[in-house]
Structures are given as C-alpha cells and as structure tokens.
Write a structure and sequence with these properties.
Order of helices and strands: HHHHHHHHHHHH
Number of helices: 12
Distance between the termini: 42 Å
Radius of gyration: 19 Å
Number of strands: 0
Helix content: over 70%
C-alpha cells in the first residue's frame, strides 16, 4: 500500500509539473512573456501560486521547462542505456547530442520566444546545469568514483551551456531568430575537450577493476 501511495504521489507531481509548464508556454505565446504572471500560470494549470512555487522559481523557468521537458533525466538515462562496451566519451557525447536535438524540440514559436526575451534566454541556457546531478550518478555507477563523476558531469554541463549560449543569440533579424550553426556540431565541439578526461577516468576504472 505504501509503495502504491508513493507511486501515485510521484505521478501526481509529474502531472502537475507538466500542466504548469504547458500553461506557461501557452500563455507566453499568446500574451508575450512580459504579460504573464505566476498567478496566471497557476490558475491555468488549476493549482495555487504556492503550489507553483514548489515546482518553479520563476515564470521564465516554467516557460523553458515546456521546451526542455525533463531533459536532465533523459540525458542520464540515455548514457546509462548505452552498452558498457561503448566508449564512455562516445556514450556521453552522443547521449547529449541525441537529447538536445531530437526532432521537433526547437519549434519556431518557442525558439522565437527564447531568442527575443533575454530573461527567457537566460533561463533556457541555464537549464544546462540541471544535467549535472543525474549524469553524475550514472557516471559514478560506471566509474566507481563519485568525486571524479561529479567533476566530469559538471564539466559536461558547462560545455552544454557554452554550446547553447552560442546557438541561440540575443535578438532577432527581421523578426526571426537566426541560430548560429548546427546545434549537434556546436555540442560536439564544446564537448570535444572533455573526451581525454572521460577516457582517462574510464581507463582508471578499468585498471582498478583489473587490480581487484
């Protein structure tokens, strides 16, 4: 019974978060983000402003969450799903690229919203930091070294931050957001300097296992 209650509670939280982020993006696209209040988002999702604050720290954070859609857990899950025979550097890079460039992610209206509103853009770029802890847990399981895993995960998050910051510029050209280059290429280039560190950590873990 306890397990069932826990599962229902988790599902309710997931549904509430989804309703809030969907309402935030819809209202932002309809009215413009500057004309949307936290109270408006909460009302549209059928919850109280206090409940809203349990999920998001700002209206921009909720708007961006509708675009990123729990990507931090999806990146970690994608790395964990790779076979252990896959080189760790390849597993991390390809998981990041896959989850950040899946079809339909960067819809025109959402991208326009992100690129033309500095506060929303900052919130979007800042989401890169959320991949750190879930990824660190997966890397710790694979490497057996929580400290190294945390450092590597933080470095991956920083590299993604750089790529996103370069990809979505501030301002528009003729009312359109002109992204800078290919996001997969930007991500791979930003992550490239981390490949030797990921390789070294993987080799150290393999050597430790052999010694045991």
């Amino acid at each position: 019974m306890t397990t069932r209650r826990t599962g229902l509670r988790a599902e309710k939280k997931r549904a509430t978060r989804e309703a809030l982020r969907a309402a935030a993006l819809r209202l932002a696209l309809e009215r413009g983000p500057d004309n949307v209040r936290v109270d408006d988002i909460a009302a549209a999702a059928g919850v109280s402003p206090r409940t809203y604050n349990n999920y998001f720290a700002s209206r921009e954070q909720a708007m961006v969450a509708a675009v990123t859609a729990e990507r931090e857990t999806r990146v970690a899950a994608a790395v964990a799903a790779r076979p252990r025979t896959t080189r760790l550097a390849d597993a991390v890079v390809e998981a990041v690229v896959e989850q950040y460039t899946e079809p339909g992610e960067a819809k025109r209206d959402a991208l326009l919203l992100i690129g033309t509103r500095p506060a929303v853009r900052r919130a979007f770029v800042a989401t890169a930091a959320t991949i750190e802890l879930p990824l660190a847990q997966v890397l710790a399981d694979r490497l057996g070294d929580p400290d190294t895993a945390r450092v590597l995960a933080a470095s991956v998050a920083a590299a993604v931050h750089v790529a996103l910051d370069r990809w979505v510029p501030s301002g528009t050209s003729g009312g359109l957001v002109v992204v800078r280059g290919s996001l997969p290429d930007l991500l791979r280039n930003a992550l490239a300097p981390l490949r030797p560190a990921l390789d070294a950590a993987e080799n150290a873990a393999a050597g430790s296992d052999t010694a045991d």
